[in-house]
Fold:
Amino acid sequence: MAATIRPAAAFHRLHLLREGVGRGASAVFVIRVASAGFAYAAQVLAARLMGWDGYGIFATAWVWTALVGHSLTLGLSQGACRFLPEDQARGDADHVRGFLRAGALVTGGTALAAGGLGMALVLLEPGLLPAPYRIPVLIAAAILPVFAMQDYLEGIARSQNWLGLAIVPPYLLRQSAMMAFLVGAVLLGAPPVAGTAMACMFAAALVSTLLQARLVARRLRAAWPAGHRRYRWRHWFGTSLPIAGIDLATAAFGFVDVIVLGALVNPAELGLYFAATRIQQIAAFVQYAVSAAALQHYSAAQARGDRPGLVGLVRRQGRLTAGATALVGLGLLAASPLLLALFEAQASTGLPLLAVLVAGGVAASLFGPGADLLTMLGGEGICAAVTGTAVAVAAILCLILVPVLGPLGAALGMALTQVGRAAILSLAAGRLHRLSTPVWAAGAA
Structure:
């Protein structure tokens, strides 16, 4: 009797995981595609108002904001998706409340310090930056605390499966508000320059973060009433700091091509390349959407000892991500002449960049969720080391290829490195956790 009940229960849990992840990923992807539409419109608007030179300066300032801002939670944003589901599965409310407060205090303090330091450097040493970059970078430093806190709030909401609340404020509301503020500022007489665009981004980030903070706090109070708090600082930071390394390396990996190009080409060429990356980013949303829906389920399944559910989740995530990435990528390539024309960019110039970037993303997706497994189940240091090495390799390839091929060299260097990183992370996850992640694998090793 027991022998028949246990497999049936395991099958039921696996079914729930599959259905929950599928619905969650679809919801997140729809939201991200909608936000991508607003973000794309905002980027087109900025490029047309400022011209390619001003747009290139704005892109540089925003890339550095995102690169630094993602790391200022010290890994506690992603850590929330690991620690909170584990504590909830054990019914440990004291540690849940302790983590929520500790994460907010650490994120806020670190981000304020980093933003203050950045502003001080720009004001006290203005010669560090060319004149057109000073105001945009000064505003970028002011954005850092807001950006980091919103990143932490997103992690908290994702850990509780509040996916709409996690995704809509930073990716839909922030982008649409930025666009509205930019149009309003120009109509009121503000000059259409990078500094104006960054000021509008600051206002949009502040509005969306305050709203998200209020909604998240309200739900947390309902789910976890006030009570005793316990803290596991060594455990949390022992895990989260390597995750912070992963976050920083991943953010750097996503922007290293833009950073290298900024040093080697003029702002106009950089603006065109950045426009191509914004279009390709729509395909990358597939990976984000499925991960956002799946990460917390990895931790919960591991805490319950549900190995069949974990194996099934890995298979589903890998196949769903690869298939959807390929379909979205092909759609982007088909629509690329129109998408590039909105930027006033020639398809003959932008299409090769987009094609190479999309091909790299699709090929990398075939290796499955290796990074997610290492982040959620153990192996953060390995993931951080591999991603950090990938950043260095991508930078070297860009430095070699850009002088020969121009922006196309940066796209090629990124695509090759992206595939290599995915393959190594898949191999590492398979050896450490006995889970085969490539889409052609059977599941458990």
Summary: Residues 430 and 436 are 5 Å apart (CA to CA). The chain has one domain: 11-433. Residues 1-22 have pLDDT under 50 and may be disordered. The chain has 13 helices and no strands.
